[in-house]
Amino acid sequence: MVLVLGMGPSPAAAEPVVSVWYRGTPAGTPRQEDVAAIRALGFTGVTWPAGDTAGIEALRRIAAVVGMTVVPGAEDPPLTAASAAAPAAAVRIAVSDARAAMIPALAWRAVAHGARTVTFDAGAPAGAGLTLADGRTRPWVKPAVAFARQLWANPRLIDALRAGPRVAIDMPAPAGLDVVLLDGGRSWLLVATNTSSARAAAVARLPGHVPYALWVSLVDGGTLAMRSTPAGPEWGIAIGPGEAQVFVIDRVQRQTSTLRQ
């Protein structure tokens, strides 16, 4: 399920971009049908080796037909749980079928800490590495597509995000847990990620001026009501390995008034 807040993205929107590293078929030769297949899945960008200037220009012409952004790619070290907490504006996530379950946590952690272009790289010497030899879609594609569609549906919110107040976690904090509160202008966005191999449970404490209910999930459309305390909202987190929980709420809560006769 994809929750859309406000208007959908315009074709000219530059951020955010969720891309797939594509090396051509055969390698070095971009094909229209490959790029169209990547776009059809819900990705908004295609990444090409930055050093291949002839290939990247050909790819730009092809990508323009389906409204995709071309991202010049560098073979920088791939994102890790640690580097996702201090990412560059553009990051590369090395994906494999074995690590598919970790994609939501890595990708959302990078966005929560400031990344706005996320590239998924299957490491295929040619093509994009989307399918197995028998034509079935690789396991990593499904969580990557889900993440791409969540950002595609809410580009203005994501682009507006700035660092918010600190969220306190009661000690001992579980290994691999990261909780970030972001200021989205008219909204607060709360992102919790777990990059460990075990389920994490913790109590997070938000500042007193932040509303405690009702938060709406960008991931599945569900709602979250926190416990109200004098110091501020208290959130009892339970989050599985590799999972991301992402909630949004209006900064100004509407209040109803009773008219006296």
Task: Using brief descriptors, characterize the structure shown.
single chain, 261 residues, alpha/beta, Immunoglobulin-like, 2 domains, 6-stranded antiparallel sheet, 5-stranded parallel sheet, 5 helices
Question: How would you describe this protein?
Answer:
The chain is α/β, with parallel strands linked by helices and 261 residues long. The protein has 2 domains: 17-158, no CATH class; 161-250, Immunoglobulin-like (Sandwich), CATH 2.60.40.1180. It has 5 helices and 15 strands. It has helices at 32-41, 53-65, 103-112, 141-153, 155-160, and strands at 17-21, 45-49, 69-73, 90-94, 117-121, 162-163, 168-169, 177-183, 187-194, 200-205, 215-217, 223-224, 227-229, 232-239, 244-250. The strands form 3 sheets. A 6-stranded antiparallel beta sheet has the order 6-8-9-15-11-12, covered by helices on one side. It has a 5-stranded parallel beta sheet with strand order 3-2-1-5-4. A 4-stranded antiparallel beta sheet has the order 7-10-14-13, with no helix packed on it. β2, α2 and β3 (69-73) form a beta-alpha-beta unit. The longest helix is centred in the N-terminal third of the chain and has 13 residues, at 53-65. It is elongated, with a radius of gyration of 20 Å. The termini are far apart.
